[in-house]
Amino acid sequence: MANLVTDDDRRTRLPRLSPARGTKPGWWQNPKVMPFLLVAPAVFFELLVHIVPMVAGVVMAFYHLTVYTIRNWSNAPFAGLANFRVSVDISGPVGRGLLDSFLVTVPYTLLVLAFSWVIATAAAVFLSVEFKGRSLLRSLFLLPYALPAFVGIMTWTFMFQKDSGAINHLLVDDLHVLHSGPFWLIGSHAFWAMVVTSVWKTWPFAFIMLLAAVQGVPDELYEAAVMDGAGMVRQFWSITLPQIRQTNLIVVLIVGIGTFNDFNTPFVMFGSAPPKSAEPISMYIYSNAFGQWNFGLGSAMSVLLLVFLAIISFVYLRSTRTGTEAVDA
Amino acid sequence: MRETTAGRWVRRVALTLIGIFTLLPVLIILDTSVKPLSEVQNTFSWVPKHITLDAYVQMWQTVPLAHYFLNSIIVSVCSAAISVVLATLGAYAVSRFAFAGRRLFSFAVLSTQMFPGILFLLPLYLIFINLQRYLGVPLSGSLFGLIITYLTFALPFSIWMLIGFFDTIPRELEEAALVDGTTRWGALWRIVLPVARPGIIAVAIFAYMTAWGEVLFASVLTTESTRTLAIGLQEYATRDVTDWNQIMAASVVVSVPVVAGFLAVQRFLIRGLTAGAVK
C-alpha cells in the first residue's frame, strides 16, 4: 500500500498555495475574486456618500428644487439653465452676492496660503538643524493641527473680542501700537480676523509636509555649497528650495483647495450670518441652500465652484509639470 | 544647512515668534478656563487674579455637554472603527493583488478628498431624507447617518497610508505562510495585520480626529438630541451672556482625548502624511 503513489498523494505534496490540511479555500479566497470583495465595502460607502450625491448634485442643479418639492423630487419642475443663469447674473442680487463672496474667497485663499507657506517653510528649515529641545518644539508646533478645528476658531473669536479679548489688550495696553482697540469681528476687520485664525490652524499641516522634505535634502549638497562660500540665504535659495519643489507644489495645491473651500472658520466665528467681508463662497452657498431652502440654486453654485476648482487645478498641474521636466532635463 | 552664528540668532528669533503665535491661543484656553466669569467679562489680563475651577463644574449645566460628549464619542468611535476595517481591506487588495480597476480605485478614492464638502452636502442631505422616507431608516438627524458620512471622510487618507505600510511588509512572509497551508485570509489576519499595527492604530486615530472635529455636515445632519460637540460647543456663545471661561474649560475637556491620541501616534501619522508627497 505505502509504495502506491496515487494522484491524490502527489497533489498534496506540491507546494500548497491552497490549504491542504482541512477544508478547501472558499470561492471568496480565489485571487480573481478576493480583491473585489476586499474593496467592495469601501467602494460602497464612497459611492453612497461621495459619488452618487455628486451626480445627484449635478442633476439637481437643473431643477427648481425648493422647500416645497424637497420631499418629492419627481414633482420638481425642470429648470434648464435657469439656476446657472441666476448664479452668474451679476446684475441680480444672487449673482452679485456670489461674485462678492468669490472676491472674498480669492484674496482669503492667497493670503492664507502665502502666510502659511512662509511660516511653515521657516519653521521647517530652522527645525532641520540639530539643537536642544527640537523635538519638543516640533510637537508644540503641531498643536493647532491636533486640536479640533472648532476649538481653535472659538478661541481666536474670544481673543478678537473688542474689550475682553487678548488681541486688543496686546496691541493697545502692551505694545501701544493702537490708541483704542477696534471691533475685529464686524465690518472689514472681520476679514483679517478670519485670515489670522485660518493661518494659525493651516500652517502646521504645510509644516509637516515641508519638514520631511527639508530633512530629505542630502547633506552633501550643503557641504559642497559651503566649500564654494555660499551663506545660509544662498544655500536656501539654491539648494533647499529647488530640492523641495515637488513637495511645495503638492502643499500649495492641497492647502489652496482646502482654504478655498473653507467653511469652518467663518461658520464657527460668525455663525450662519457672517459680515460681508468674511463670507467666502462655501458659506454663501450654504446660506443660499439651507437659509433660503433653494437646493437647485445651491447645487448650481456648487457645480460652478467644482468646475472652477477643476480648471484651476488642471492649469496648475499642467504648468508646473512642464516646469519640472525642464528642471529635470 | 550649515548654520552661521548670525544664522543661529535668526533661527532663535524666528522660532520664538512662531512659537508665540502658535501657543498663545493654547495658553489662553488654559488661562481663561480657570478664571471666574466676572474676570472674563472685564478687560483681558494675561494672569488670572483668582484661580477657580468653577467653569469646569458649571459648564455641564449651561449646555447638555455630557450628552453631546456621548454623541461625539459614539459617532467618532463607530466611524473610526468601521473606516479602519474598510481601509485595511481595501489597502490590502491594492497592495497585494493585481485586479482590473486597481488604479481607478486608488485614484477615485484620493480625488474624493479634493471635492468641496458643500458640493455633496446638499444632495447627501436630500438622499438621506428620501431614503428615510422609502426605507424607514432614520439617516438625517440620526447618529447612524453621521457615522456613515464620517467613515468615508477618513477613508482616502487611511487607504493611501495603509497601502504604503503594506508595501513595506515583505511578501515572502505571507508566501511562506501560504505554503504552510494558511489561507489568504489567515495570512492577512495573522501575519500582515500584526506587522502593520502601528499604521493601523495611526489611521484609526486620524479617523477619530476627523469625526471629532467635523462641523459642516454636523450642522445639517444633526438635531438637538444628536448634536455633536463641534456644534454643541457653539451653544455657549448664543446665550445672552457668553461664558467664555466655560467655553474654554469645555475646550480643554473636548481637546484632551484627540490631542493625547495625536501625540501618541504623531510619528506614524507624519510618516503617512508625507510618504506620498516626499519622494
TrEMBL record, chain A:
It is found in: Cell membrane. One of its GO terms (cellular component) is plasma membrane. Signal peptide: none annotated. GO terms for biological process: transmembrane transport. It is a multi-pass membrane protein. It comes from the Bacteria. Coiled coil: none annotated. Keywords: Cell membrane, Membrane, Transmembrane, Transmembrane helix, Transport. The chain crosses the membrane at residues 36-63, 108-129, 141-161, 181-200, 249-273, 293-317. Residues 102-316 form the ABC transmembrane type-1 domain. SUPFAM superfamilies: MetI-like. PANTHER family: ABC TRANSPORTER PERMEASE PROTEIN (PTHR30193), INNER MEMBRANE ABC TRANSPORTER PERMEASE PROTEIN YCJO (PTHR30193:SF37). Belongs to the binding-protein-dependent transport system permease family. This is ABC transporter permease. It comes from Rugosimonospora africana. The lineage of its organism: Bacteria, Bacillati, Actinomycetota, Actinomycetes, Micromonosporales.
Automatic annotation (TrEMBL), chain B:
PROSITE patterns: ABC_TM1. Its main location: membrane. GO terms for cellular component: plasma membrane. Residues 69-265 form the ABC transmembrane type-1 domain. Gene3D superfamilies: MetI-like (1.10.3720.10). InterPro entries: BP-dep_ABC_trans_perm (IPR050901), MetI-like (IPR000515), MetI-like_sf (IPR035906). The keyword DNA damage does not apply. This is ABC transporter permease. It comes from Rugosimonospora africana.
